[in-house]
Amino acid sequence: MAGLGNQNNLLCESSNDENDVDDCSATLLDLKALDCPICTDALTTPILQCDNGHISCSTCCNKLRNKCPSCALPNGHIRCRAMERVIKAVIVPCPNVKFGCKQKFSYGEELTHEKECTLSLCSCPARNCKYTGSYKDLYSHFKIHKGERGYSYRFTFGDKFAQVYFELTEYTSVVMKERKDGLLFVVHCFTEPHGVYVTVSCIAPSALEVGEFSCHISTFLEKYNMTFDLPKVKKIQKLNFQTPEEDFMLVPTYFLHGSQALKLRICISKLNQE
Ligand SMILES: [Zn+2]
Ligand SMILES: [Zn+2]
Ligand SMILES: [Zn+2]
Ligand SMILES: [Zn+2]
């Protein structure tokens, strides 16, 4: 056990050229062997097994109420530590290796990293645009959408507010372009029977390097005034068209007075980071 590890180390140490490190690695031809046979997600610790040795991830084990789907024996009481060791020992590169990320991870952990990797690709939030690129390039790419009837607003962090106008029958998202950091934010409306859900997100991976932002939204109608504070703006790599379950402002239907026009005041600020 420990001997194997030492042998590998010895091999690596004996070579001076970094490229030779590959000499002591093995090739696994089928990475799927490291995925949960039930849900096909990458296996992560704890890995569980039934008395017959069928393995599953802990999520599947819970979902199937501790019953092995292959042989119906109880599952969930025995950990498959051998497989857990294998998963840990398989080192894979960040999926963005082709864009220059040099980080490596134990199998499965690269997917967690990918959401934070600053080199992960983001999709342009303009309708019908297929462009994907680094979040740093999105701002300048977005210039090609100038003048399109898709609605975008320019602003600077700390501005009092931007007045954002929606004609909900025509479009449901507008893009706010932050001048100083060159970032794109999207204000997205989802119409549901009882009201309109409004979300504000930043198009970027969730890396710390991007920064953190808060948002203040308000809307008003005659004598009513409604405000909403989002302490942390979500970072997303592409627009999501599913009605959100959290982090939204709900503008009740009666507020719209039967019209499909919605006027919002939006103020996005950059949070100070330690
Ligand atoms: Zn599973
Ligand atoms: Zn079984
Ligand atoms: Zn990476
Ligand atoms: Zn585009």
Automatic annotation (TrEMBL):
Family the UniProt entry places it in: Belongs to the SINA (Seven in absentia) family.
KW S-adenosyl-L-methionine (keyword) present: no
Coiled-coil spans in chain: none
Protein name per the record: RING-type E3 ubiquitin transferase
Function: E3 ubiquitin-protein ligase that mediates ubiquitination and subsequent proteasomal degradation of target proteins. E3 ubiquitin ligases accept ubiquitin from an E2 ubiquitin-conjugating enzyme in the form of a thioester and then directly transfers the ubiquitin to targeted substrates. It probably triggers the ubiquitin-mediated degradation of different substrates.
Organism for this UniProt entry: Camelina sativa (False flax)
Catalytic activity of the protein: S-ubiquitinyl-[E2 ubiquitin-conjugating enzyme]-L-cysteine + [acceptor protein]-L-lysine = [E2 ubiquitin-conjugating enzyme]-L-cysteine + N(6)-ubiquitinyl-[acceptor protein]-L-lysine
All residue ranges annotated as the SIAH-type domain in the record: 89-147
Pfam family, any one: Sina_RING
Source organism, top-level taxon: Eukaryota
Domain RING-type residues, every copy: 36-71
Keyword Nucleotide-binding attached: no
Pathway terms, separated by semicolons: Protein modification; protein ubiquitination
PROSITE patterns in the record: ZF_RING_2 (PS50089), ZF_SIAH (PS51081)
Sorted UniProt keywords: Metal-binding, Transferase, Ubl conjugation pathway, Zinc, Zinc-finger
Xref: InterPro entries: Sina-like_RING (IPR049548), SINL_plant (IPR044286), Znf_RING (IPR001841), Znf_RING/FYVE/PHD (IPR013083), Znf_SIAH (IPR013010)
EC number: 2.3.2.27
